């Protein structure tokens, strides 16, 4: 059976970052999501952080109500976020670690150390008809733990790959870790997404990673949109995907 086309999920967090820098309503992340979908995006990703530094509760509700493609709700596995996600009913939830002092998500979940609570969280979300993904580093014990708790997806953290590419584009060590992680996950019955730090320069190498379903990309697309517009930025990324 031929592989399905790789999907692009556009993360609109940093449209909200720009809005929040001055307050008010503009630029509107929901309008950005609608434009991204018009340009061909396969889905929209948004991270509701505990400190609401960019996306806000009302953004999530509007995204679910107004977009025509799947909504991927990134969140820490907390009681507050569970309450909101169960009320919002996105297509999928991606569980991520979160620290207030970090600029962006710095690492993957330690699933191996949190198997029991994450299993309970996964079960509640699945019972509500929401698919569950775990944002993890390409480490064998974390991938195995993700399968053991019953997640449908993992999202491989590509931050180390992106940093290695920036320092030495010809280095393949981190790419090899991603390839091995994707193979392991596939063998364990997990579907595989990837994201973090992906951009127009390093993304072509990701085609060497097998079994990928979706790439979730935000900062580089929104940054590119400053110069060429959001439609063109999404279309350029889709051409690479």
Task: Name some characteristics of this structure.
alpha/beta; globular; TIM Barrel; 241 residues
Molecular structure report:
By secondary structure, this protein is an alpha/beta fold. It has a single domain (7-240), classed as TIM Barrel (Alpha-Beta Barrel), CATH 3.20.20. Helix content is 44%, strand content 17%. The chain contains 10 helices and 8 strands. The chain has an 8-stranded parallel beta barrel, surrounded by 8 helices. Strand 4 (92-95), helix 5 and strand 5 form a beta-alpha-beta unit. Helix 2 (29-38) packs parallel to helix 3 (57-66). The protein starts with 6 loop residues before the first strand and ends with a helix. The mean pLDDT is 95.
Q: Which helices and strands appear, and what pairs or packs with what?
A:
Layout: E1 7-11, H1 13-22, H2 29-38, E2 43-47, H3 57-66, E3 71-75, H4 79-88, E4 92-95, H5 115-127, E5 131-136, H6 140-148, E6 153-157, H7 159-167, H8 173-187, E7 191-195, E8 212-217, H9 219-228, H10 230-240
Parallel strand pairs: 1-2, 1-8, 2-3, 3-4, 4-5, 5-6, 6-7, 7-8
